[in-house]
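Problem: given the chain below (96 residues), write out its structure.
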Amino acid sequence: MSVHNMMEEIVRNCLRDLIAAGGQASALDEKSQNDVMAIALNSLPPKYVSTDKGEVFAKTQLRAQVETDVYRELSHAIEKVTSHARQSVFQKETNA
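Solution.
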């Protein structure tokens, strides 16, 4: 197994949960979802694993420990991305 940042998987899974729950996240296209993930991941500490045993531990223990932080950072990132999208649409409308 190669070195893997488990935080990426945790953030991806939490974002999927938010999308499934509806709200602002459900309106994000693929590019916006990637932007949200990048913004959130840049605000969260990486959690690297290099063994299968470490991955199992991370999947069972780590998500529960960092989930609150992940959802908080995802919420901030979603707000930032959707706010930027609204500003871009408004700028296009005023320039037309």
